[in-house]
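Thread: "does anyone have the structure for this chain?"

Original post by V.I.:
We have the sequence but no experimental structure in hand. Need at least a predicted one for the grant figures.
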Amino acid sequence: MGAAEKKSGQHNIDYWVKHLTQEEMPAFAHTARIIAGEASDDESSASRLAKLILQDPSMTVRLLKMANSPFFNPNRAPINTVSRAIVLLGFKAVRSMCMSIAIIDSIVEGKDKSQVTNELSNCFHAAVQAREIATRRHDKAPEEVFIASLLKNMGKFAFWTFARKIDKGNGKLLDQLSRETDSNESLEKDLLGFSLQDLSAALNHEWKLSPLLDDTLSKKSHQDPRVASVTLAHEIANTSKKGWNSPEMKDLVKRLSEVLYMPIDRVNEMVRKNADLAATTLRKLGAPKIAALIENNLSSENHSISSKNSTTSTVNISNHSSEKNQAQALSDNSNFDANNNFPEPNPGLQLQILSDISHHINKKPDINLILEMILEGLHRGVGMDRAIFALIASNKKHLKTKSSVGWGHLELGGQFHFKINIKPGNVFDLALKKRKILQLSLAPNNPLHQLIPEGLKNIIGNSEALIMTASIGEQPIGIFYADRKPSKRKLDEACYSSFELFCQQANLGLLKLRPK
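Reply from O.Q.:
Generated one for you, tokens below.
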């Protein structure tokens, strides 16, 4: 059977890109675009990233676990809020964590799960090695090298995740491909009409993820040290499967020592330490099976490391349990349950977030990041089911959602659109005028219930809600809103006071932005 016959009935690469983008991985494509998207400045990017993370309770919890891992946080400064992670670790480091989580989340069960987990294991291991190499080469943005390495084989794991679903009638062809233990571009092109590396490049172009990855896959910039860092890192990850003491690995370590101007024994120690860090971090991501693939290489009896490094590896791997307990303690400390999305009040977390806000205000306040920190405090610290910041429109006649967090926040945000400065006035007009916290309910004994507009009545239902004005000095700019309607929990005095305190802190930050 000729190559042309083998390709008959196969979907071309454009079909795969379109189908993966629109049908199979739209959530990943959307999330990855936001995470990897370049912005004019890191401050606006940071606030958008914080918003993206807080919209996903599962991502929030796992990101905080990763933020407390040795790889991303070697100083082990406790991090229990998203905003603190961004402030302490930096926007680019948090972006790398989010991309890692998004990739893990894109995996689905299937016949080819082993291909997918192998590719993800390789890519994450390579990404950790690449960031270390880039850092030692004084790269201006090691996190960009991390992301390019992480995504280098995304065509492969995307293909093997959905191949049986998209190409239902070509099981034998897929079986033939799956038996290949090493990448075989000529066979891929012969059977599919394109290589899986071509698919990686096409997805990267379509989703606008990484210019560095584009350079790496195009092979046009082989002299670029950043491209070399990505390539070397993937060689390390792939070669480690042959054994850390194999001739191939020894040759590779020698090459790397020349590139980094480091002694061979130190390079040996570095790459093995990075492999262990990769496995540890994957466990914090909630991917123990993928982590085990790296750990198995480290502890393989046939390719044992020196007694010194073997002891180090054993200690590190045995610490997985304690690190897992630390991560669980972190999650418990934030009183956040990713399964029901209803956080309990946490005074300690409130103080931490308020302290972070004060610190940020006293530096160079970024209003968007401050607002995301306030909403995180209301949701995860005060324990509100959902919270909104609604902005006054330029015509001063409407109030509309700018940012939201919590249970069903997207639907809530779409509903939260109200008229203001009308006659007779409503509760929003009253809040904007009095500049103080108002507690709302539809109970007849609530003095404000007749001022609540119909749309807001539907939002509040049988629960209670709190609102307060956000203002720059004497100029109102919006409203903070929070409730516990989804969980049907009551609002107590502590909740009332904490909500007011966070809104006041927001207004202090806004005041700093007022022109002198």
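V.I.: this helps a lot. The radius of gyration is 26 Å.
O.Q.: and The mean pLDDT is 83.
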